[in-house]
Write a structure and sequence with these properties.
The complex is a heterodimer of chains A (355) and B (361).
Chain A: H1 8-32, H2 35-60, H3 65-91, H4 116-129, E1 133-134, H5 160-167, H6 171-179, H7 192-220, H8 225-251, E2 259-260, H9 263-266, H10 271-280, E3 284-286, H11 289-294, H12 301-306, H13 315-328, E4 335-337, H14 338-351
Parallel strand pairs in A: 1-2, 3-4
Chain B: H1 12-21, H2 26-33, E1 43-51, E2 56-63, E3 75-82, E4 85-92, E5 102-107, H3 114-120, E6 127-130, E7 146-152, H4 156-169, E8 175-182, H5 191-200, E9 204-210, H6 211-214, H7 219-225, E10 233-238, H8 240-252, E11 259-263, E12 279-283, E13 289-292, H9 298-304, E14 322-332, E15 338-339, E16 345-347, E17 351-359
The chains are: A mainly alpha (355), B alpha/beta (361).
Chain lengths: 355, 361
């Protein structure tokens, strides 16, 4: 029996039961966290830093083509791990329970142009609270892409297949500009002063990031300067395209629901209702363990949205149980291989380009 | 105030290299090879663990690059990894500042999690995270001519750091009286060393009180054992009862500024069942205090009391409301889970008070 066809009272009861069941699942994992999880995150950090160091060394002698290929591949891998499995998850507070100031949401800074603080606000707060709520979740199309029928259509959306494609290789810059929330200034939700403050912080970070990848390392590479610069550009580009792919596949395949904002429904929603919205507003990607690590376990987007603060290495273990719960409650559990989710996401970009 | 989460320190030679590793630092890479090479997240390695009578031990720690030294009488926050989780506690440093190693003397509390681990289950070679040394229970410069130390139980530990430092000065050390109390001779930390010091150094007078047979150190006893206490600068460390009595005694004599107290911030024992208790919440930096009901979030309690609280989603998701817990215990209102780690960052939007507590805000 699907939740949408039962009578309202029974539905509310079922929703609360769903909430309690998911709360118990969460408590179970929290109680079970231990040395194995700590080892996991320490390993990922060691592998990431190792790949980055070796990759940078290889790019220092990248006039030699095999060194260019190996260096670029390792650097792209390092940057992907750094953003997805480390940065995103640590900034969610998933590892705060370790009590280790070196792996903590308040001290972590990532290799991405947008400063961690700005991102925590737009992502952890706005996106995770108002997942797929039209007009509230700015991640629903990142303010420029129309992803739902109830978002107003404007002629500029005719071009959205083009600019969505162009956004992918420079995704980190798109996110950085988006995190400034300049669109919130005219509406009064953000002051001009705080916009200027955020812009200064962004410029400072972006300058350091760009100097590292596009000036200092190529300069140190001497005769390999040009291939090193190209290697760094390629690694950042590959990481950006990959991040764009994973993130767009997490919320925009065709079967993912969007929601309309009403004060009493969204602000007053119970824990069960909130869980329900997270399940319906997210989509998973099927694949092997390597795919999961490379996506920062965002291939388990549904589990991540239900439990954004549980360590990412636990999502694979949670997935079959969440899926079973969804089946029992007649809830959709949108999942599929990467190619299908990707095609489906593009279908949606194309469809909503038109009124 | 104790803060274990602090901004990274940057050594001049490393700042150019750090441009290449931004947003990380060179330290973060060195720390992968050996945690002691990290200056950003200071660590130390235990070199030896020496028994100090039943249930106590002295840990000698070789600090790594990040160590910025200490003054005698200060205490040190250390992060001890147990089952993958770092637990942060503070202990008085008992070694003089010019030693290359740092020593801490730890007494195992029967109901504790960290102190028994340090005393009984910490082999040499263990790596501990180190915070910066803190505290004002230190010796002034220039030294006063006459000093008095009053200690009870493990309150001797910071004073031991002071005495060992004075012993290095030997001839220029001030005239010192130590009134120490312990339940029995067996439970008197450093008894042998104190005896030797008193025998060797004419400037040190030692009076030991055994509380099991003689009763506690009271203002009357202090005055009796050290008749010129009014003329001395005093350092007092031990349980709250002793500190409160000393504070009254010195204040009544109009000599409060001659007295330095060191309060060990022991966690008050709280019921751990479902019957949440709420409690008095102190905002340590703003000085505001308020009562929080058991089912009220600390965020709501703080806002009601007019404290500007950091906040985000108000649902426990975004970690925008993290604040360090200075002391006391909180309860996760979603799960009932209790937390009492000193300096731990807690989410005020989903935690309530489980007894009196203080937040660094």
């Amino acid at each position: 029996m699907s939740l949408s066809v039962v009578a309202p009272d029974a539905r509310a009861l079922r929703t609360e039961e769903l909430g309690r069941e998911l709360d118990r699942l969460r408590a179970e994992i929290v109680a079970d966290r231990g040395p194995g999880d700590a080892r996991y995150i320490h390993h990922v950090i060691a592998v990431q830093r190792g790949c980055e160091a070796v990759g940078r060394c290889a790019l220092a002698v990248s006039v030699f083509p095999p060194a260019w290929v190996a260096g670029t591949a390792l650097l792209a891998l390092a940057k992907t791990l750094e953003n997805m499995e480390l940065g995103h998850n640590i900034l969610h507070g998933q590892w705060d329970w370790l009590g280790d100031p070196a792996i903590h949401s308040t001290t972590w800074e990532w290799d991405f142009v947008t400063p961690a603080d700005a991102w925590k606000r737009t992502h952890n707060h706005l996106h995770h609270t108002y997942t797929n709520v039209v007009g509230r979740d700015r991640d629903l199309g990142y303010t420029i892409v129309r992803m739902a029928a109830d978002q107003p259509w404007r002629p500029v959306h005719l071009l959205q297949p083009l600019y969505t494609a162009l956004l992918a290789p420079v995704f980190e810059w798109g996110i950085a500009v988006y995190d400034l929330e300049a669109d919130a200034v005219p509406s009064g939700r953000k002051s001009l002063r705080s916009l200027l403050g955020d812009a200064t912080a962004l410029l400072r970070k972006a300058a350091r990031q760009s100097a590292k990848d596009y000036v200092l390392f190529p300069f140190l590479a001497g005769p390999s300067a040009l291939p090193c610069l190209l290697g760094n550009l390629t690694a950042n580009g590959v990481r950006n395209v990959w991040a764009h792919t994973v993130i767009f596949c997490g919320h925009f395949p065709a079967d993912v629901r969007t929601f309309t904002y009403t004060e009493e429904q969204i602000e007053g929603e119970s824990r069960g209702e909130w869980y329900l919205r997270q399940i319906q507003g997210s989509a998973n990607i099927e694949g092997g363990p390597l795919l999961h690590v490379l996506t920062g376990n965002l291939s388990h987007q549904i589990e991540h949205h239900l439990f954004p603060d549980l360590p990412s290495n636990r999502y694979a273990q949670l997935a079959p149980r969440v899926r079973e719960i969804c089946a029992r409650y007649g809830l959709p559990y949108v999942t599929g291989p990467l190619w299908r989710q990707y095609a489906s996401m593009w279908g949606r970009v194309l469809r909503h380009a038109l009124p | 105030m104790v803060r274990s989460f602090r901004a990274p320190r940057c050594l001049p030679w490393a700042s150019a290299m750090n441009r290449l590793t931004t947003p990380l630092t060179v330290d973060d890479y060195l720390g992968q090879l050996d945690p002691l090479w990290s200056a950003r997240h200071p660590a130390g390695r235990v070199r030896s663990v020496r028994r100090e009578g039943p249930g106590a031990a002295t840990l000698t720690i070789r600090p790594g690059r990040g160590w910025s030294g200490h003054r005698a009488g200060q205490y040190l926050p250390i992060g001890v990894e147990i089952d993958g989780v770092h637990h942060w506690r503070t202990y008085s440093i008992t070694s003089p500042p010019d030693d290359s190693d740092v020593s801490l003397t730890v007494k195992a509390r029967p109901d504790g999690r960290v102190s028994p681990h340090l005393v009984h289950r910490t082999p040499p070679g263990t790596v501990l995270r180190l915070g910066p040394a803190q505290g004002e229970f230190t010796l002034p410069e220039p030294l006063p001519a006459r000093v008095l130390f009053v200690t009870a139980g493990s309150g001797i530990t910071p004073v031991m750091g002071l005495l060992r430092t004075l012993a290095r000065r030997h001839r220029t050390a001030p005239d010192a009286v130590l009134l120490h109390s312990a339940p029995t001779p067996d439970e008197c930390l450093f008894q042998g060393e104190l005896g030797l010091m008193a025998a060797e150094f004419a400037w040190l007078k030692l009076r030991l009180t055994l509380t099991r047979s003689d009763g506690r150190l009271t203002p009357k006893r202090i005055a009796g054992a050290c008749p010129d206490w009014r003329d001395r600068y005093a350092w007092v460390c031990g349980p709250d009862g002793l500190l409160d009595a000393a504070e009254r005694q010195w204040a009544a004599a109009g000599l409060r500024e001659r007295l330095r107290l060191e309060r060990f911030r022991l966690m008050p024992a709280q019921p751990t069942g479902e019957g949440a208790v709420g409690g008095r919440v102190r905002f340590a930096r703003s000085g505001v205090e308020t009562d929080a009901a058991a089912d009220t979030t600390l965020l709501a309690a703080g806002e009601a009391a007019g404290v500007p609280m950091p906040y985000g989603c108000r649902r426990g998701l975004c970690f925008g409301c993290l604040v360090p817990l200075v002391e006391g215990r909180v309860r996760d209102l979603r799960t009932g889970e209790l937390r009492d780690m000193q300096n731990e960052m807690i989410q005020t939007c989903v935690n309530g008070a489980a007894g009196p507590l203080a937040l660094d805000l």
